[in-house]
Design brief:
The complex is a heterotetramer of chains A (about 400), B (about 160), C (about 160) and D (about 375). Helices cover about 50% and strands about 10% of the residues of chain A. Chain A has about 400 residues and is of the alpha+beta class. In chain A, the strands form three sheets. In chain A, strands 1-2-3 form a three-stranded antiparallel β-sheet. In chain A, strands 6-7-8 form a three-stranded antiparallel β-sheet. In chain A, a hairpin with a 2-residue loop joins β2 and β3. Chain B has seven helices and no strands. With about 160 residues, chain C is α/β, with parallel strands linked by helices. In chain C, strands 1-2-5-4-3 form a five-stranded mixed β-sheet, covered by helices on one side. Chain C has a two-stranded parallel sheet with strand order 6-7. In chain C, β6, α3 and β7 form a beta-alpha-beta unit. Chain C starts with a helix and ends in a 31-residue tail after the last strand. Classes of the chains: A alpha+beta (about 400), B mainly alpha (about 160), C alpha/beta (about 160), D mainly alpha (about 375). At the B-D interface, α2, α3 and α6 of B face α2, α4, α5 and α6 of D.
Chain lengths: ~400, ~160, ~160, ~375
């Protein structure tokens, strides 16, 4: 019997993990969770070997949603790739576009007008709130509470999507952030609507706390479960709220500031022992931090240009560049190598969900089958980003 | 041939039928289910004889408790060879003779009892049982609880043994 | 820890690691670009992670590039303590059976990314405990991310 | 006002006289009337899930900032009949590896006992089908049989997940039956009778005029017994937060995965009737059954209180997440059971100090002469048992 806390403390060398459990072990049972399982957040299969109720081995099996985005990008010009990045983490398309544009702008060395940067920050933080709302809703359903889903996913996120629709006409794949600026200026009255939404969102965040965060059965199901220490997290390359919940103060907005984040004051919610509840709590607190950022941005934004001096059809000087930002699920980066032609020579995506998912191989061992769903849900992955 | 006697014969025929299935069926789960059914018929007989408290507790304890746990064991132990076990033992002739002898003995004993023609008037028996158990029969009642204690200790010993 | 003394510390142990000059007109972040010979990669990984001065304990990503004449694997390393970054580039000349040692013993986060390199580029990762295709179906022939990969769709519906 | 109870009694007595005039022996007449009463009660009980399913969907919708069914009929009233008809015409698939007979038997075992349990429940004055002396014990005994239904469903479906779901469901129901039964012992002790009718009528008195003497209002023992019984009943009906057997997210809806069409409908029907039965028991035992001011008929009081408790069941379902299996068992054995036992001790203490002079065990004479109705053979009830 593997006793879970000990195992998660030490970083298990990758070679110690089982290769691929395909047949039932002699004593236990082999359960293939997914790919049509209602709670694996999309097309993901986790092959689990159990001994009674305890998980003895887990190997996620991905690739069901692989669309070869990196190969496609080599055939498209730089502006055309923005459309590809929308479909990576389809719950946070704004931050995908922004991260890609950061990388290209770094290689082009072009200056962004201030109003465009403010709009990018407002829209990026709104996208973070929408993505965390999806997480809060679906994680509630994983643990068995159906009602929060209708509040966070059904009510709050819908209002954000309405705001985005008014801004750029789309509800999911926006490609609003363009290389050198943003697609168009915010329609008049839009910023006031955002201000109204921000005020009401504070109340909604407190409502989630009352309804789910401090619900005794919810805490009983998630506290002390799926403990991931910061050494294990850093060793497996985990980033985002999952890493911060383990007590590591790592946030790209602070470590490697981009855009106008140095001008806004906000703090980073940090957890202590990195269990499922802390990962959930960090995301709820992050919603409040994002609201603070938006408020300050709304106060500081001035009218002005929204598109820098970038030609419609441009070439990037040969060389390589890496731009990354703090996406809702972690450190999302784009590594681009250009050979001077209008389309990139090599286009690599540093997808946080893909790398965060690896830790499951070690994290699931030793916990109960009922906890597998809670732990998998707390990592909050999106298959579009995992399979690219 | 009054109505209650008719019911009595029907019930006993069904009970014997189910008990036969318990003995003969190869499917372990089906056998356990039929055993549960025959336990239910025992409760029906108690009800027919006017013992309402007895019928209810028989149903509660045997059908609701003991049989559920037996079904548990059957579902946990799914070793396929259990299902293809031979039903009849090799020395079935002596077994048949023994069964015949015991059967004859019972039939002779039953002939001396004249069967009641109609049902006893239904009395509420639970209060009477209460007085009996805690009044005159208090000592045997306590002794029986020792049997239960022994069963519990036995279960614990088996349980712990498997754990270590 | 500026890139100068990272280089100094490293070259003390590995004289044959030398920096890659920054191409003209190309801005770069504060990463230091290092060209690591294939044979030296395994030891360099251990030193980069264990040496207190360098302390690169976080491997952000691993990827590969097909330069038509040779392959190249890129490791983007970050030190969460000293807050400095490094990019290792390893050139792989042999195109017929390209091989590179694994770094999962040092940074487990390279596990799936190296499997992806094997799956899409066909570069064998020696010493990887679970080298199988990760994104493509197991019976897929060819390595799609190579420049010379000809995609022959089997149907046009 | 229009008390239905006595009207029904007259109707049944006339019917029995009519049968005897037709030449049936008194026994056959009684059996005929009982048959008539049973069909009447079962038809009422069958109508309840229709209403409850609609109520659950509407209430859960309002709790979740949405509207619930609105299209079928005004405010979606015809939604449940529409569902039932749809399920009637759905193809009834039996999995290939399953044991066909057991697959069907499981549904009967799960659904039938719940209707039988309604016999001793007193709806109002003079209304219980049978004034059964072992009322509450009979209900627990028969409701225990539905556990077999779940086990048979788990095994009969032939697939690994439903077998696991069946095992977990049965384990949960068996272990929650004990605190449920023990939480009723104080009530039985207090009113010294298992008969639901006597328990209900005994709660009719008033403390200094206005405060109804319901068992729940007895400080300490009343509330504990009420809470333990309610929690155990929620667990017994496999509803959130105790719905491990059909935990959708883990076992893909447990033991009734392989059921479709009318069989699936019966599982749900049984669950809702079971919820109504548990609420009816809570009302009879703790809220004084049909006791209420005169302006409403007694059966309406009973129905009102029961629907209030049903609302509690629904409310639990849409606010609580699900308990983990081992925590659920631990909660039962290490919290509910000791609490129920302590409550029994408290009740006995209360009864001792309440009537120190009188001997705690009521003498035979004290057996309340329950109201007289129904067939002649009930006449024997008033005769005290001499043995």
């Amino acid at each position: 019997m593997i006793d879970p806390p000990l195992l998660n403390k030490a970083v298990v060398p990758a070679s110690a993990l089982d290769v691929f459990p395909t047949q039932a072990p002699e004593k236990g049972m082999f359960i293939s969770l997914g790919p049509h399982h209602p709670s694996t957040h999309g097309v993901l299969r986790v092959a689990i070997t159990t001994e009674g109720e305890i998980v003895t081995g887990a190997q996620p099996d991905i690739g069901y949603l692989h669309r070869a985005t990196e190969k496609l990008a080599e055939k498209r010009t730089y502006p055309q790739i923005i459309v590809l990045t929308d479909r990576l983490d389809y719950l946070a398309a704004m931050t995908n576009n922004w991260s890609y544009c950061l990388a290209v702008e770094k290689m082009l060395n072009v200056a962004i007008p201030e109003r465009a940067d403010y709009l990018r920050m407002i829209v990026g933080e709104l996208q973070r709130i929408a993505s965390h709302c999806v997480f809060i809703g679906t994680y509630g359903i994983d643990i068995g509470a159906f009602t929060p889903f209708f509040y966070s996913f059904g009510r709050e996120r819908e209002r954000i999507l309405d705001l985005f629709e008014e801004l750029c006409g789309a509800r999911l794949t926006y490609n609003y952030v363009r290389i050198g600026g943003v697609m168009a200026d915010a329609p008049d009255g839009w910023l006031d609507k955002v201000k109204v939404f921000v005020k009401e969102m504070y109340a909604a965040a407190d409502e989630y706390d009352k309804l789910l965060t401090y619900n005794p059965i919810f805490t009983d199901r998630t506290q002390g479960i799926g403990i991931m220490t910061s050494e294990v997290a850093k060793a497996w390359g985990v980033t985002g709220p999952n890493l911060r919940a383990s007590g590591e103060r790592a946030d790209v907005r602070i470590d490697d500031p981009y855009g106008l984040y140095p001008r806004v004051k906000f703090d980073i919610p940090i957890g202590k022992n990195g269990d499922c509840w802390e990962r959930y709590k960090c995301r709820v607190d992050e919603v409040r931090e994002s609201l603070k950022i938006i408020e300050q941005a709304l106060a500081q934004i001035q009218p002005g240009e929204t598109m820098g001096k970038v030609a419609k059809y441009f070439r990037v000087p040969p060389g390589e560049g890496y731009g990354h930002l703090e996406a809702p699920r972690g450190d999302l980066g784009f590594y681009i190598i250009s050979d001077g032609s209008p389309s990139p020579y090599r286009f690599h995506i540093r997808a946080p969900s893909f790398i965060n998912l690896q830790v499951l191989q070690q994290l699931l061992k030793g916990w109960k089958v009922a906890d597998v769903i809670a732990i998998l849900g707390s990592i909050d992955i999106v298959l579009g980003e995992v399979d690219r | 041939m009054t109505l209650p006697l008719g019911i009595f014969y029907a019930l006993s025929a069904l009970m014997i039928g189910f008990s036969l299935v318990v003995v003969t069926s190869r499917n372990l789960f089906r056998g356990a289910m039929c055993l549960t059914a025959s336990m239910g018929f025992v409760a029906a007989f108690f009800a027919l004889l006017g013992g309402d408290f007895l019928a209810a507790s028989q149903l509660l304890i045997y059908v609701g408790g003991v049989m559920v746990l037996i079904l548990f064991v059957v579902m946990f132990v799914q070793t396929p060879d259990l299902f293809r076990a031979r039903q009849t033992s090799v020395r079935w002739i002596p077994a048949l003779l023994l069964a015949g002898g015991v059967g004859a003995l019972f039939i002779r004993a039953f002939c001396h009892i004249e069967s009641p023609t109609e049902l006893p008037v239904l009395q509420p028996t639970s209060t009477a049982l209460g007085h009996l158990l805690l009044g005159d029969m208090a000592v045997p009642f306590e002794v029986i609880s020792l049997v239960l204690l022994a069963a519990l200790v036995g279960a614990l010993v088996f349980g712990l043994e498997r754990e270590s | 820890m500026s890139s100068v003394n990272i280089l100094a510390l490293l070259q003390a142990k590995f004289p044959d690691i030398h920096p890659i000059p920054q191409p003209a007109g190309q801005t770069r972040g504060d990463e230091v670009y290092l060209d690591v010979p294939l044979a030296r990669l395994a030891e360099a990984a251990h030193v980069l992670q264990s040496d207190p001065g360098l302390a690169f304990n976080f491997l952000s990503f691993v990827t590969a590039v097909d330069w038509k004449t040779h392959f190249e694997t890129v490791y983007y390393l970050v030190s969460t303590t000293h807050r400095h970054k490094a990019v290792l580039k390893v050139k792989i000349e042999n195109r017929t059976t390209p091989e590179v040692p694994t770094v999962t013993h040092v940074w487990p986060s390279a596990d799936w990314q190296e499997r992806e390199i094997w799956d899409l580029f066909g570069i064998r990762i020696t010493g990887h405990y679970n080298l199988r295709r990760i994104l493509l179906p197991d019976n897929w022939e060819g390595y799609p991310m190579r420049k010379d990969y000809v995609a022959t769709p089997d149907r046009y519906d | 006002m229009f008390e239905i109870g006595p009207l029904l009694i007259q109707a049944f007595t006339y019917a029995r006289q009519f049968l005897t005039t037709l030449g049936a022996t008194p026994l056959q007449a009684v059996v005929g009337i009982k048959f008539l009463q049973t069909t009447l009660t079962i038809s009422i009980i069958l109508a309840i899930p229709l209403f409850l399913v609609y109520a659950e969907r509407k209430i859960s919708a309002f709790m979740q900032a949405r509207l619930g069914p609105m299209h079928t009929g005004p405010w979606g009233l015809l939604q449940t009949p529409a569902d039932t008809i749809k399920l009637l015409f759905k193809e009834d698939i039996v999995p290939q590896g399953a044991d066909r007979l057991l697959h069907l038997l499981a549904v009967i075992l799960a659904a039938a006992p719940v209707f039988v349990c309604f016999a001793p429940v007193p709806w109002g004055t003079g209304f219980p089908l049978i004034n059964l002396d072992t009322g509450i014990l009979f209900v627990f005994a028969v409701s225990g049989v539905s556990t077999l239904g779940i086990l048979a469903a788990g095994w009969g479906s032939g697939n690994k997940f439903s077998m696991l779901g069946g095992l977990r469901g049965a384990a949960q129901m068996v272990s929650y039956e004990i605190p449920r039964a023990l939480s009723v012992v104080p009530v039985v002790l207090f009113y010294s009778s298992l008969n639901l009718q006597t328990i209900a009528t005994a709660q009719m008195e008033r403390w200094h005029g206005w405060m109804p003497k319901w068992f729940i209002f007895y400080p300490g023992i009343g509330q504990i017994a009420f809470i333990v019984f309610l929690i155990a009943s929620v667990a017994e009906t496999n509803r959130i937060p105790f719905d491990i057997p059909e935990a959708e997210s883990e076992l893909v809806s447990g033991y009734h995965t392989e059921y479709s069409g009318m069989k699936f409908a019966f599982f749900f029907l049984a669950e809702y009737v079971y919820v109504f039965l548990s609420s009816a028991l809570v009302t009879t035992l703790f809220l004084g059954g049909a006791d209420g001011a005169a302006f409403l008929p007694s059966w309406m009081w009973f129905l009102g209180k029961t629907l209030l408790i049903v609302f509690l069941f629904l409310w639990f379902r849409w606010t609580f997440p699900r308990l983990r299996v081992d925590r659920l068992m631990q909660f039962c054995w290490q919290f509910l059971l000791p609490l129920a036992l302590v409550n029994i001790v408290l009740t006995v203490g209360w009864m001792m100090c309440k009537t120190p002079s009188q001997d705690v065990l009521p003498t035979q004479a004290a057996i309340p002469s329950s109201e007289m109705h129904g067939s002649p053979d009930d006449a024997g009830l008033t005769k005290a048992v001499e043995k």
